[in-house]
Amino acid sequence: MKYLDEYRDEELARKIVDEIRRITTRPWVLMEVCGGQTHSIVKYGIDRLLPNAIELVHGPGCPVCVTSLEMIDKAHAIAQRPDVIFCSFGDMLRVPGSECDLLVLKSRGADIRIVYSPIDCLKIARANPDKKVVFFAIGFETTAPSNAMAVFQAKKQGIANFSVLVSHVLVPPSIASILQSPLNRVQGFLGPGHVCTVMGYREYEPLAERFKVPIVITGFEPLDILEGVLMTIRQLEAGSWRVENQYPRVVNREGNRVAQDLVNKVFEVCDRKWRGVGSIPKSGYKLRYDFKEHDAERIFEVKEIDTQEPARCISGLVLRGVKKPHDCACFGKECTPEHPFGATMVSAEGACAAYYAYGRHLEANPQTADVA
Question: What's CA 104's distance to the chain center, in Å?
């Protein structure tokens, strides 16, 4: 349990917080990019340890949350086909589409299965040669290597009844989109540790230079996050902007070149729609033409679906750091994990789910607290 002790040490945390307080001379707004970081911040109350001058806002680093409504509706259209076995990670089953979610479709008879790895789908495809097995390939760069490997192996082994519905998204273009928005308030970023484990952090250096913002690649334990904040504030107070690595025990500048080569062999960069945000140029992956026989969108010829987000859901503003979950009138009332309006409440990494899981809906809604 080395890291639980080493990176959750109360005395060290207090020393870092004291140093943050000492050097902070003006208000700053920081964004943590990854949903895992958001949950750690809320779970351990890290945002409440910081001086009032420092505000943490939550970014688009939840892959479930940012999967577009159009893509979810495409998944539903494919999953309902009688000749399909539709496979997904469990966190996608309750994400609402325009009409329902995958769990409801499963209850109506659709063959929808939870898998723990896309490689599991190859076994399912071999065992069911009369069915078309489709895997819902979502996620940031972190999950792209395993999804690429499944496609690569399917082609290599001649498993023709396996395909992927690809909805991969990329972090650097989303950061650029946030910084270019007229609503942007973010002045520094806690970068995504898991993504950079695969990709390294070279791609973030031009962003820091172009937008003159510090980006500190940060881990997920309380001391990781506090140190990431400290490193970011030091840069902001000094008027500097560069990429720093708080997470060297896991991340290096170059990343995992073997994984990158596999991803580049199977995928190519494309424009991608983000839920609640819209289309961001060159912010996603799609299958290369060489792997077209495993592309579910081509196989099933799913047309573009016209969708519209619920008017009351502000998840798009939450994902861009403009609003926080408790700014939503529905948060913790009509919108709960049992009855979510948007993906930021249903996803295990969503900001709304984090606020709800750790009781902040009770603070936002005193009447709810009385009932509880």
Answer: 24
Return the closest-CA partner of residue 29 out of 313, 320, 342, 327.
320
CB 121 within 8 A of CB 157: no
CA atoms of 305 and 68, how far apart (whole Å): 11
Which amino acid is located at 153 in the chain? Answer: Q
| Whether the Cβ atoms of residue 337 and residue 308 lie closer than 8 Å to each other | no
Rounded Cα distance between 367 and 360, Å, is: 13
Retrieve residue 6's tokens: 């080493």
SS3 (DSSP) at 211: helix
pLDDT digits (tens, 9 = 90+) for 24-81: 999 999 999 999 999 999 999 999 999 999 999 999 888 888 999 899 999 999 999 9
Nearest to 166 by CA among 260, 62, 300, 338: 300
End-to-end CA distance of the chain: 35
Neighbours of 81 (CB within 10 A): 15
Least Cα distance to 36 among 247, 347, 363, 276 occurs for 347
Q: Is the pTM for the entire model greater than 0.85?
A: yes
Domains and CATH numbers, the chain: 1-311 (3.40.50.11740), 315-371 (no CATH)
Q: Which CA distances in Å does 113 have to 53, 56, 95, 109, 117?
A: 47, 37, 15, 12, 12
